[in-house]
């Protein structure tokens, strides 16, 4: 199978594909030039099922569920780096890594969330610098005794609220340090699990408290290299009826406070795609953070694949010439399959969706639409689905020195046999 992906075949396939795309007015070289500049923030939490490396930790709670127990998950930061590095070696381009506060390294000492500081991420910075990648950050407002009643920044207890406000402030400091040390912007996203399982008597007070807590967190001017983002949600496990930070709450908040709104593809009603929302929201906010995920029936955080939702999202962004206004971050966790494979599949699928959008014959479809030729427009949109995207993709991989086509798949098994299986044995003994 791998012989198909040798250099000369990839080059000749690309040459032919280029001609085919040119026939609909699309320049494949240009598309690849744009794609090579798109950084994707790969989330750390697929690597260990959202566990983190805090010294004292309780299990996953706050509505996040990772299911499955594929052997060999990373048990410490060194192992997570080792796995992520493997994944990055199979991804074309230079990207970013997206950390959560619970991935700190504290030398065996207990460090509570209101004490976490830039120094706890020193190893991550050295590693990222070495790999020439950026780092993004997230405060972790879950899996903690002070989130166990279901409320953090909107808690009615002032001292609990203050604890989480301090955590939020520290998250921004850590992000600012990433930006400074690595010389590129760092996105600092905030998601909280606050909400109620059943009908609340009072929907109002927690939202008022949340708005006030957020204003406290964002009071300090942290400089323009930190991109603050706020992420809403439809519901979570244990917050089925009421989510304090709903999508409407954060959309309004981000517009009024000039923050990025984070749109997670799994955080809306199941029949609602986020692609239609991009052109609406970007009328009023300068930038959006997208959490690229794949819901099945609910916010199930399945590994991202190149499906219609993703293809439509990517097309909306390129048709609106808005690539520079979108920050892409993956967000899924499947513990039932090889976790490095999950990362690579997810990020490569997003890149493929972006490539297919960059190869979209925008001029032709616009002309058809503007001249009332609906059937022709639909026909060309359909024909594009069977164009030789794979040949262009393979050339992109090849020219970025990563395995093309299916030839990366064997790498996963090798890593599993050489590295992960050792961990499983240790785990057993
Ligand atoms: C939860 C949000 C959030 C988390 C991560 C771990 O519903 O999607 O982005 O998945 O921060
Ligand atoms: Zn998310």
Mind explaining what this structure looks like?
By secondary structure, the protein is an alpha/beta fold. It has 2 domains: 1-26 and 359-429, no CATH class; 38-357, TIM Barrel, CATH 3.20.20.150. The chain has helices at 7-22, 28-35, 77-89, 122-131, 158-182, 204-217, 247-257, 275-281, 308-319, 339-358, 362-370, 374-384, 389-399, 409-428; strands at residues 40-43, 96-100, 134-138, 186-190, 195-196, 226-231, 242-243, 260-264, 288-292, 294-296, 298-302, 326-330. The chain has an 8-stranded parallel beta barrel, surrounded by 4 helices. A two-stranded antiparallel ribbon has the order 5-7. Strand 3, helix 5 and strand 4 (186-190) form a beta-alpha-beta unit. Helix 2 crosses helix 10 (339-358) and helix 9 packs across helix 10. The longest helix is centred in the middle third of the chain and has 25 residues, at 158-182. The protein is globular. The relative contact order is 0.15. The structure holds L-rhamnitol and zinc ion.
